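Pilot study result, target chain (470 residues):
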Amino acid sequence: MTVVDQIVRRGAEAAPGFAESPASARAALLEAIADALDGGADALVAVAGEETALPEGRLRGELARTTAQLRKFAGVIVEGSYLEVVIDHADGSDVPPRPDLRRMLRPIGPVAVFAASNFPFAFSVAGGDTASALAVGCPVIVKTHPGHPRTSETTAALVDQAVAGQGLPAGVFQTAAGFEEGLELVDADALEAVAFTGSLRGGRALLDRCTARPRPIPFYGELGSLNPVVVTAAADAARGGELAAGLAGSFQLGDGQFCTKPGLVLVPAGSVLEAQLPQHVVAAHPRMLTETIAAGFETGRDRAAAVPGVAIVAGGASATAPTVLAADAATLLTHRELLDEVFGPVTVLVRYADEAELDRVLEALEGSLTMTLHAEPSEDVRGLATWMTSRAGRVLFSGWPTGVAVSWAQHHGGPWPATNTQFTSVGATAVRRFLRPVVYQDAPESVLPDALHDANPLGIPRRVDGRLEV
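Predicted structure:
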């Protein structure tokens, strides 16, 4: 038996008991993990800074987000609506006659989480995928990212302490490292799902592996995004300079290594935004998170810049320097490779001559995590806004897409190739990925979970005989 086999077996052995644990116990675990991370913040930030070169302020902010989302998931499971409880009492007069039916969501079992490169805390060992799986009672095995191994080890040790402190078996939370180990983890028979944040290429490979198993399992992948922005002529005329400053801050934030970076911006020909954007592009030579990311950025940016009709309008003086490219709409429609995501501080301005040309460009776009529309209040953009919802999971009407709030209403996902799932990886409903519905028919109360008892001992929201009770 390999090391990975042993890890997955421990997770499978811990799964039944963890699934039956009360929400209060799982909430206490999440709170304990958050407390442990807060208590170890200085050590975590120090080692992450050495491995990633991210500034201290960014790392402390990200760690605060990580512990906050752990605590928010604790609140989600105690509130209880995530269980989606529905009770239909027996009704012989219904057509056809209805037995007693009680439905709720149940944890699926051990899940694998593949950590991301660009968020060493928030999308890594104790990040949102781990938090949402633990919250609903699924043991987690984190495949750590090679870009920050010591940060991962330090974080995992703190989580282990919290798990032990709550009297839970070690199988509730474990880690694995290594490329081959990651593949072996996906193949393990007892595994029930995979969550991944990373590149389209890597995610597609894992998706294919999940579906090729003798017993296929779900793959929840967040695979990157172009995050197009549309600036109307009226908005550009009214506040093009302001929009230029906002765009510059967004596409250069974190050296462009956010999955919500605006990578394509549609602007009217001769825009104020394009004229004023160069003054906001910094002459920096950032150190990217990994050598692989740096190489991919340089290759992708240079390939886009080499397309006939594409001009460098700002930056680009060094291998990793922030860069603004620009092209006419006709160039983009001829060279669809400009729609490929380049991970790093680059954005492409696409000049449209009129609304008809804008529409042609929009129709060429694939799914994204976000789309942003900057228009003036006097403009009727209802049709455009509705169209955007067909291509993105989050549509913005002010501001910029970098920065994803962790809340009940948040959705971080979108049509392929942004993700391969209808669920979110950020926000309260991220827990839905690791649950499946189960119906109890004519079951005696002695076998029913507390959530399905008529007396509602948990005091959670439920739908009973068609009526919502809160």
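One observation from the pilot: The mean pLDDT is 96. A full batch analysis is planned for the follow-on phase.
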